[in-house]
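Lecture notes, unit on protein representations.

Consider one protein chain, 350 amino acids long.
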Amino acid sequence: MGKGGASAVARSVVGGTLRRYAVGRMRAIHFRMDTSHTAFDWTLLRSFLAVLDAGSLTAAARSTGMQQPTLSRHVAELESQLGAPLFERTGRGVTPTAAARAVVGAARQMQEAAAAVQRDLAAARSAAHGTVRITTSEAAAAWLLPPVLARLGQAHPQIQVELVASNDLSNLLRRDADIAVRMVRPVQQSLVARKLGEVEVVAAAHPRYLRAAPPLRSPDDLPAHRLIGFDRDETILRGFARAGLALARGDFALRTDNHIVYGRLVAEGAGLGFVARYAIDHWPGVVAVLPGFRPGALPCWLAVHREIRVDPRVRTVYDFLAREIPPVLAVGSNTFPRSISQHAPQYLNK
């Protein structure tokens, strides 16, 4: 065998040995990734492939935006873990060794797998699907949100909604819900809140009550009426105080803190109540009275926990509610709602 043939055989033997050694080291690396507490740093292989593809540390630094010393350190660390040199330094760049050529296939597979994971994660983040849990007051759950959620279902059928009707303000902090629609501003630093508008409160009654009731021409006539109020909630009392009317708890003949029950009492003609303007149309026959009297308004806030607001499904529902609720609150804001002054003026003139 000639000298050239001997050199070729030697290179083949050395190359085969290095390939087997490098593959064995890569398998060991994979083994350590699965079983050891010291995780293999994918960044090392990424830097190795960048240098391999670019042909030099300088070109790899330009293409990746990384610092050249960082790339050099990564390659050196990977060579130390593999126990073999990966590049031969030349005047103009680097040349891959047999060990580098032996491991490049496995490195490419890891690169492709990492890219696939990134694509899957990006797709999962961008896909607005799954379940979103919304909490709000009993009144808003019964009369404000149902038409809004019906439109949400049409626009985003892949999103499921769980609606929690509760007056408990701590749902978001306990992570019992993703989004809250509340009539008080959240003060917790961990929550992000957005004001959607004002819930206007108006005096309202059913004609069955009004036909037998005393005259009602101004707020001064209210004490003579059978008023429906809250039990322990002082919202109505504070509203009357701001309006200059000194009414006490005992001036309300019927009292309940359950907003659903409250609305049914008004709808059945049990007395004169003070309700959200948007809710009146949900009670057939109930009309607003005292057009010039506004016993109060409640701010409507949309809140979400800061850590989950970037979740696609939560963000989709949050943005939808922020867009759809304000028009519901604003309906008739410049005109009095279905009122007794428009539909039954004889009740005012008794």
